[in-house]
Amino acid sequence: MKGTFLPGFWAFTPERSLKENGKSNFHWDTEPNTFHYVKPTSMYILDEFYIFQYIDRLANDRNLDELVRFIRNFAAVHYQLLRIKQQECTLPPVKSGKRR
């Protein structure tokens, strides 16, 4: 059975994918979105890194329409997740960042 290739999908951790595929192949994929064998916290860090890269690319390309669509979609998903989380559990209070 032959595997299916999906852009952004990596079958292993970033370290192993880089080692097995080489730097040029690894960096060819400008928006990787899935790595296997990565803990959730590390995946969030990777996802955040690539989202900022994507936003920077859209800004540098002066692609305002796509940038606005992305930001609006991101905000909508964020608030939808907050509504779901609020129904699931009580969120901890957030301490004020103000210092006296």
Average pLDDT, to the nearest integer?
79
What is the 3D form?
extended
Series of H and E elements: EHEHH
- Helical content (DSSP H or I, runs of 4+): 55-70%
By secondary-structure content and strand pairing, the structural class works out as mainly alpha
- Give the spatial strand order of the biggest sheet: 1-2
Q: Please, how many helices?
A: 3
Radius of gyration: 18 Å
Structurally, how many domains make up the residues?
Answer: 2
Spans with pLDDT under 50 lasting ≥5 residues? Answer: none
For the record, give the distance between the C-alpha atoms at the N and C termini, rounded to a whole number. 65 Å
What profile does the largest beta sheet have? 2 strands, parallel
Strand proportion: under 5%
- Structure summary, number of beta strands: 2
List keywords for this structure.
100 residues; two-stranded parallel sheet; mainly alpha; 3 helices; 2 domains
Fold and architecture overview:
With about 100 residues, the protein is mainly alpha-helical. It folds into two domains: about 1-60, no CATH class; about 65-90. The chain is built from three helices and two strands. The protein has helices at about 15-30, 40-60, 65-90, and strands spanning about 10, 35. A two-stranded parallel sheet has the order 1-2. It is extended and about 45 Å long. The model has no long low-confidence stretch (mean pLDDT about 80).
